[in-house]
Amino acid sequence: MTASTKAAAVGGRRTADGAADTAGGYRPPALQRVRTWFANRFAIIAAIVVLVYLFVPVAYTFVFSFNDYRKSNIVWNGDAGPTLKHWKNPCGAPGVCDALVTSLKVGSIATVVATILGTMLAFALVRHRFRGRSTSNVLIFIPMATPEIVLGASLLTIFVQGFSRFGLRLGFWTIVIAHIMFCISFVVVTVKARLQSLDPRLEEAAQDLYAGPGGTFWRVTFPLVLPGIVGAALLSFSLSFDDFIITNFVSGDETTFPKFVYVSYLRGIPAQANVIGFSMFVIAVALVIAGQVIGNSRRK
Amino acid sequence: MSIFGGNGSKATRGFREARGNLRLTGVTKEFGDFTAVDDLGLEVPRGSFFALLGPSGCGKTTTLRMVAGLEQPTRGRILIGDTDLTGSRPYERPVNTVFQSYALFPHLTIRDNVAFGPKRRGEADAGKLADDALELVQMSHLAARKPAQLSGGQQQRVAVARALVNRPEVLLLDEPLGALDLKLRRQMQVELKRIQTEVGLTFIHVTHDQEEAMTMADTVAVMNHGRIEQMGHPEVLYDLPKTSFVANFLGQSNLGDGRVTGTDGDDLVVEVAGTTVRIPKSRSTVHDGAITFGVRPEKVRIRDQRPDGAGNDVKATVVDVSFTGVATQFLVTVASGTTWAVYEQNLDVERNHLRPGDEVWLEWESGHAFGVPVNDVEAAAATVADPDAAKAEPRAHQSADTSGDGTGDGSGSDPDALAVPS
Amino acid sequence: MTVASAHVAGGGTTHADPAPAGGARKRSWTAYLLLLPGGLWLLLFFVIPLVQLFTVSLQSGFPGYPGYYYRDVNIGNYGTALTEFAGHFGRSLLYAGLATFFAFILAYPLAYAMAFKAGKWRNVMMICVIAPFFTSFILRTIAWRQILADDGPVASTLKFLHLLPGGHITETWMAVVAGLTYNFLPFMVLPIYASLERADARVIEAGGDLYANGFTTFRTVTLPMSMPGVIAGTLLTFIPAAGDYVNADLLGSDRSTKMVGNVIESQFFKVLGGFPVAAALSFTLMALILAMVFLYIRRFGTEELL
């Protein structure tokens, strides 16, 4: 790997000597080279093993989507052989697609709101000095250091004992509210990191080149922070889509996809859950790869 | 020629059109208790190449940033011609900056980087202007690339083009060559000078590299502690420094503190550490009392025996001899214990026979000597006072001259800014 | 502070200029305007609920009316939480600690390879780490139940090798820790990767040059440089693991592997009148974790997280 690819990957930050610089050029003695060879391979091999480990349960989910099970899709039915019937009828199990739609809706709303609110907070914290700044920093950090179950429990008590007076019932909107809450902190952290690594001279240069405050923000600051904001949005959506613990506390009768799977596990899980779970995985990977490809072609 | 014609676009609202000399009057910048720039008065003639030279933290970058509008002075005014720019924002001034780290927009192509300014000002042919500017710095072939794909020298050219394309009344260069290697730096010095002559704009160049300042500028101002110590044509500054700081920062000087004991015709008679020397009255800023005597190393001749000429002389002991190719540099200790540097051009083919420990005589023409006020602090810091230290590390003390890197800080960081409290 | 930030910037462009260009001295009402919506949200749905949870933890139940409570200062709820469920607290911290340790062991080589060895595969590997999120973690945990089942591949192999004395993995602490390790692994990988990626590969090479021994280089150069990431990663793994109840529920047994999370969940949903004790349990868990986090941050000193 040359320094230039690294610089490109880091995006925006470049070494003073630029692309002409390479990290190589140094050759250690033979014995050390042998050691380094193993050290290098060790990291790569270990990494591949860990990646495989990450994918084993996904593979299981995939395989069991073809299971012609009897009661619950837990044990492989060797008598019947694989079947495509669940893939042909992914909404066949009652409630599974409703739960998926609820999850997608919650995820989308929570992502949009949390990304906007979190980005605003990040800008305030990085770009402004104001009274209560360190308090705000702590306030944003603590939700991340609080176990989900405590977040869920506290929200449940306030929804049941406090906010119900204002007509707020457990259901779709309480899930959305909760998801926005726990996503905000992650958005702030992600956008903040990007904002802090931004060279202040770029904005000075924009001002120097006749861009007013608005022009500087929209033509320089925002495009440069955008990758961080997009990353934060992706993170929010995946956190929201996969959340079960908090959702379980605040959802009332509403069912999200993870909750559907959890609840049906006790009664007999349908293979449609596997079909949908695996499809979401494929769609997500495809979208991220597409985004990468578009990003790369733009960078060129 | 109305490049900056008000076209009513948003970006140019409040734009202050201005032509003429750049003037700073009584400009002071304080950061809390720290005074970065202290009551600075300055006039830079239109179309000249002006260098602000000084060590880290002397206030030169802060001065530049105030002219750019990136900082506002605590007191004082900044004008171009008769237009007062004080208080206006950077985007309201006919001033552009080539930033130290270039500050090219990483998300834009080279052409878009250069066209950024013209577009913000609502120029209809921004693309054409950008292409012309890239042509000027010979970067047209890379117009479609992104900054990260360019080398340091190429980025530097783009940064110049991006500023020049706006035809500013004043172009500011903030250590623009700091990040380049020596060879490329020399090349760019020549190039920048060519461009300045071609476009005829006022260039203000901030640097801590005295050689760079002298090579490029018509006028050099040496700054120290937020003030201008001396200002003038590089040759004049070098020949006749007016303070011991300038004597040592701009090139290198052999200095000695002494006392004016009388006059002899047009000369001052000065006693320095038991030796009597002469300084032309016209070459001294002090005419009685305490004085610092100085003479440049290349103006001093080294002799085996006591010379009988009309010049001044002093006995000395050789401490170090370094052969540098075109010249030989000697470090010698004079009677007072001060170490002097002497350069001799290698005109002869025969090898130099002097070795450390040899007794020699130093000689110079009194017309080459100069006198400056005694400055205890600066003198102690700037002159080589400790012969042991000089023996051990002679170059370190003499670095002001030959390395082209006055403060030893070639890393490209912004030394001024370090002194500014956040 | 200036020097520190320039140092962090590392091999990149040196920004030694401490005067933030974007105008840190902008008028503060802009700041408050930016803070207002997000801050209000966190106040309404994080701070106030916590206060409410605290008051609930002090409530008492109406005698004879299960599910109805009155305002009280009933510290007894905390007594119940700490005495009756001390074992659950211990298990939570122990399981979470083990899972954090194993996750670190697994995550570091992966993050290291991503940062220094992956080259153009770096983004692909990144996607691989995040992608499993999208198959619901409940589904993946159920898959682990199948993988670790008595007649599944792992247990059968171990039994064949006589390495599994009890004969089971599921329904034991091993399955719970394995599940926790798996589920929170990406939270360990990503911060370590981020801090390694920021580190300059040349510094590590220089370290290799100085020490020659790979492990010494790792211990003295690489690991310290990735410390902020390691700290963030351990926190992001330990905290959710300690509060988790899904793994213990799906992979563990009803008796010996229950964690605090399971108790809180069942007190809220399955025990009529369990609200105050559940709230006291939640609050104790949070206080415990926050105390550990702050001690930890202070010990390894990084303000960056805050």
Explain what you see.
The complex is a heterotrimer of chains A (300), B (422) and C (306). Chain A is an all-alpha fold. Helix content of chain A is 71%, strand content 0%. Chain A has a domain at 94-269: MetI-like (MetI-like fold), CATH 1.10.3720.10. In chain A, helix 2 crosses helix 12. The model of chain A is unreliable at 1-24 (pLDDT under 50). Chain B has two domains: 10-232, P-loop containing nucleotide triphosphate hydrolases (Rossmann fold, 3-Layer(aba) Sandwich); 240-392, OB fold (Dihydrolipoamide Acetyltransferase, E2P). Chain B has helices spanning 60-68, 110-120, 126-136, 152-164, 182-199, 210-216, 234-239, 244-249, 376-382, 387-392, 394-402, 415-418, and strands at residues 22-31, 34-44, 49-53, 75-80, 83-84, 95-98, 170-174, 202-207, 219-224, 227-232, 254-264, 267-272, 275-280, 289-295, 301-303, 312-323, 327-334, 339-345, 359-364, 370-372. In chain B, the strands form four sheets. Chain B has a six-stranded mixed β-sheet with strand order 6-7-8-3-9-10, with helices on both faces. Chain B has a five-stranded antiparallel β-sheet with strand order 13-12-11-14-20. Chain B has a five-stranded antiparallel β-sheet with strand order 15-19-16-17-18. Chain C is mainly α. Chain C is 71% helix and 1% strand. Chain C has helices at 2-9, 28-57, 76-84, 86-117, 122-130, 137-148, 153-160, 173-198, 201-211, 214-225, 227-243, 246-251, 260-269, 275-300; strands at 60-61, 69-70. Chain C has a two-stranded antiparallel ribbon. In chain C, a hairpin with a 7-residue loop joins strand 1 (60-61) and strand 2. The model of chain C is unreliable at 1-25 (pLDDT under 50). Chains in contact: A-B, A-C, B-C. Chains A and C meet through helix 1, helix 2, helix 4, helix 5 and helix 6 of A and helix 2, helix 4, helix 5, helix 6 and helix 8 of C. Chain C: InterPro entries: MetI-like, MetI-like_sf. Chain C: Residues 89-296 form the ABC transmembrane type-1 domain. Chain C: It comes from Knoellia koreensis.
Characterize this entry briefly.
The complex is a heterotrimer of chains A (300), B (422) and C (306). Chain B is α+β, with helices and mostly antiparallel strands and 422 residues long. Chain B has 12 helices and 20 strands.
